[in-house]
Write a structure and sequence with these properties.
Strand order of the largest sheet: 2-1-3-4
Structural class: alpha+beta
Helix content: 40-55%
Number of helices: 9
Largest sheet: 4 strands, mixed
Distance between the termini: 36 Å
Length: about 220
């Protein structure tokens, strides 16, 4: 049994989608980020960085894993799914996984903050992160022009890691018009039952987008 500590964010959805795809039994604990659940001592004992997601593998001596990319690799190796064992193919998957971890996630995250939540609108910051997000999407579009998935013909943890971020491009103010291969990939993954189920863990908040923005703005300014 996997215990998942998560919240309704792209990084959190990566792991719930992976668990659904891999067919692993799990229980989730929804952390209230506005209430700083992720900073409480009991959670910091699992993830000293105080971020989501994290997992505890009850079948492996309560082994804790934090950082979404590390969790995906751990789960893939545990199940033998969505990460090839052949060295070159495995490297390709890990390259695209790191592309998301080091590029897509951080840039889209900053675009979200400055475009949606930051109390002061700073055009130069908004433009910087939106432009970099678009550039990264163009890189992906080029890769997907000749490959069904990011690392080739097989669906892998690289796709699982990246899709939750790309699907919210409009929320970040990043335009993907003209990126037909990227759009095809986004639409295809949206039809996967595990992707659909993973987006419901935890269930969506009843707060309106405006209310969410107000609460997140308070977090940003603290």
């Amino acid at each position: 049994m996997i215990e998942l500590y998560t919240a309704g964010t792209p990084n959190g959805y990566k792991i719930s989608i992976a668990l659904e795809e891999m067919g692993l039994p799990y229980e989730y604990h929804a952390l209230d980020l506005m209430a700083a659940d992720q900073k409480k001592p009991e959670y910091l004992a699992i993830n000293p960085n105080g971020r989501i997601p994290a997992i505890v593998d009850k079948d492996n001596d309560d082994f804790a894993v934090f950082e979404s990319g590390a969790i995906l690799i751990y789960l893939a190796e545990k199940t033998g799914k969505f990460l090839p064992t052949e060295p070159k193919k495995k490297s390709q998957v890990l390259q695209w996984l790191m592309f998301q971890m080091g590029g897509v996630g951080p840039m889209m995250g900053q675009a979200n903050v400055f475009y949606r939540y930051f109390p002061e609108k700073i055009p130069a910051a908004i433009e910087r992160y939106q432009n970099e997000g678009r550039r990264l999407f163009e890189v992906m579009n080029g890769q997907l022009a000749n490959n069904r998935y990011l690392a080739g013909d097989e669906y892998t943890i690289a796709d699982i890691s990246t899709w939750p971020w790309v699907r919210i491009h409009e929320w970040s103010g990043v335009d993907i018009s003209g990126l037909e291969h990227l759009q095809r990939w986004v639409d295809e993954l949206a039809q996967r039952p595990a992707c659909q189920k993973g987006l419901l863990v935890p269930p969506p908040s009843n707060l309106s987008d405006e209310e969410k923005a107000k609460q997140i703005s308070k977090m940003v300014t603290k």
